[in-house]
Amino acid sequence: MSAAMSLRPGTRSVEDMRERLIVGLDVPGVEEARALVSRLGDAAVFYKIGYQLAYAGGFELARELIGAGKKVFLDLKLHDIGNTVEEGVRSVARLGATFLTVHAYPQTMRAAVAGRAGSSLKILAVTVLTSYDDKDLVEAGYAPVPAAELVARRAAQARDIGVDGIVCAATEAARVSAIVGPNRFVVTPGIRPAGADAGDQKRVVTPADAIRAGATHLVVARPIVKAADPRAAAEAILAEMGAAFPA
């Protein structure tokens, strides 16, 4: 877990911020993704591939990016019977990805930890989706419980099972960081630069506030992908992240 610890000191170097910023390749196809990666250049070194792109050639793109020295976060949110999850994770580990998400159900997390054994793949548990609020959880059938409480409960389970990190809203990052300790990753989506529209996210935070709250990595998609100048947008976010640290 030393990789997580190396991201927590109070440094504000551009290189450190680039390692923390994960650009979500939320585009419909590989060619659009390649074009975005090209436009970003060295402003980004870490990319997230989710459902939309994964099922449109994204796995081959992942191999391409990894071969070019980039890091890849496969946001697949696996959740199935234990054996299926374990074997799926084992296959992803052979791909060379850095992060893989699974849903934070105990059986699923145990299977994922078993599947990544012996590899450098890091498993991230998704606690509560950032598009959910308390009302959504009740509608989904959960007993009345605040989203933050469910996040905390699942974070503690993930820690005890040996999962490498947590995906949570930045509004819960401080509490999650305290629960899982300094040796695990805290990855926060739902990041919006100061003054940006929240879109369909219900629990959003600015880049600087997310870092201050204890996030080790920020996932940013639309504010970069939809920008007229993606590189400039990424660099502005990197500057916001750096501002979270003392001069």
Automatic annotation (TrEMBL):
Pathway: Pyrimidine metabolism; UMP biosynthesis via de novo pathway; UMP from orotate: step 2/2. Transmembrane segments: none annotated. Substrate binds at residues 26, 48, 75-84, 130, 192, 201, 221-222. SMART domains: OMPdecase (SM00934). It comes from the Bacteria. InterPro entries: Aldolase_TIM, OMPdecase, OMPdecase_AS, OMPdecase_bac, OMPdeCOase_dom, RibuloseP-bd_barrel. One of its GO terms (cellular component) is cytosol. One of its GO terms (molecular function) is orotidine-5'-phosphate decarboxylase activity. Residues 20-237 form the Orotidine 5'-phosphate decarboxylase domain. Its EC number is 4.1.1.23. It is an enzyme of class 4 (lyase). It catalyses: orotidine 5'-phosphate + H(+) = UMP + CO2. The active site is at D75 (for ompdecase activity), K77 (for ompdecase activity), K77 (proton donor), D80 (for ompdecase activity). GO terms for biological process: 'de novo' pyrimidine nucleobase biosynthetic process; 'de novo' UMP biosynthetic process. Belongs to the OMP decarboxylase family. Type 1 subfamily. Catalyzes the decarboxylation of orotidine 5'-monophosphate (OMP) to uridine 5'-monophosphate (UMP). NCBIfam families: PRK00230.1, pyrF. This is Orotidine 5'-phosphate decarboxylase.
